[in-house]
Design brief:
Radius of gyration: 17 Å
Number of strands: 8
Distance between the termini: 32 Å
Order of helices and strands: HEHEHEHEHEHHEHEHEH
Oligomer: single chain
Shape: globular
Strand content: 15-25%
Structural class: alpha/beta
Length: 229
C-alpha cells in the first residue's frame, strides 16, 4: 500500500473519534513527507532536532510540526522559530528555555507535559507529583511565552492490553484533575497525546486526542545521513 492509502486507512478509523493523526515522519526522507502532505496530511512528528530543521526548510510552510522526542535545552533555539507543538516537555528547566527562545522569536509556543506512565526505565517524563509541583511553582507562573495545552504519555511496550489500558486511564484521570485544578477556564488545555501504532486503538478508547503513527504509514524506509543526537 502507498503512503496515501495508509493515511486514508487511519483517517477513516479516526474520523468518528476526537483524535487527530500525527504522522511520525522521523527517519523518512522529505519526499515521503511531501507524499503524505499531498495526500492531505498536515501534522507531522519528529524526534531529532536536526532532522526536523532540515525538513522544515524543504517542505511546505503550512505543515504543523510536532517535536515528540526527548529535547535537550541547547537544541530549543533551532526549532523555536517554527515549531507548532513540543509534546515532550519533561522538566521545568526545559520549559524555562522554551519560554526564553519563544520570547526571542516573539511567539507563544504550545507544549505538552510528558508524563511518565510506563513500567520501564527507558522512557522520559515527569512523575504525577512532579507535574503538580511544576504547575504550582512560581517559576511556571512567570512564563508568559509558553502555553501548556495538555499532557503526553507513552505506555509500556508490552503484550498486556490491560496494562496499557490501565496506564492510559491513569493519564486521563491525571489530565482531568489538572484541568479542573489549574486550567478550568482555559479552553486550550484539551490535548492528551497517547497511543502509537501498536496501542492507538486502546488510547482512543481511553480519551486520546492525538495518536502518533509512523512506520505503519511510511513503511520501513530509513534515512542514512542523519545521526542521532
Amino acid at each position: 500500500m502507498s503512503i496515501a492509502d495508509n493515511l486514508l486507512k487511519y483517517k477513516k478509523e479516526l474520523e468518528s473519534t476526537s483524535a487527530k493523526l500525527v504522522a511520525v515522519s522521523k527517519n523518512n526522507e522529505a519526499d515521503a513527507v511531501q507524499e503524505a502532505y499531498d495526500a492531505g496530511q498536515r501534522i507531522f512528528g519528529e524526534n531529532i532536532v536536526q532532522e526536523l530543521v532540515d525538513k522544515h526548510a524543504l517542505l511546505p510552510k503550512d505543515i504543523e510540526w510536532h517535536l515528540i522526542g526527548h529535547l535537550q535545552t541547547n537544541k530549543v533555539k533551532y526549532i523555536a522559530p517554527f515549531i507548532s507543538l513540543i509534546e515532550s516537555v519533561d522538566s521545568l528547566k526545559l520549559l524555562i528555555e522554551i519560554n526564553k527562545q519563544a520570547l526571542k522569536n516573539n511567539r507563544v509556543i504550545d507544549c505538552l507535559l510528558q508524563v511518565y506512565i510506563a513500567d520501564e526505565d527507558t522512557k522520559f517524563g515527569l512523575g504525577f507529583d512532579e507535574v503538580i509541583e511544576l504547575l504550582r511553582s512560581e517559576e511556571f507562573e512567570s512564563l508568559k511565552n509558553i502555553r501548556i495545552v495538555g499532557l503526553m504519555g507513552i505506555a509500556t511496550n508490552t503484550e498486556s492490553k490491560k496494562q496499557i489500558r490501565d496506564e492510559f486511564q491513569e493519564l486521563k484521570v491525571l489530565f482531568d484533575g489538572i484541568k479542573l485544578t489549574f486550567f478550568r477556564k482555559d479552553a486550550y488545555f484539551k490535548e492528551i497525546s497517547m497511543g502509537m501504532s501498536a496501542d492507538y486503538e486502546i488510547a482512543v478508547e481511553e480519551g486520546s486526542t492525538m495518536v502518533r503513527i509512523g512506520s505503519n504509514i511510511f513503511g520501513k524506509r530509513k534515512l542514512k545521513h542523519f545521526k542521532a543526537e
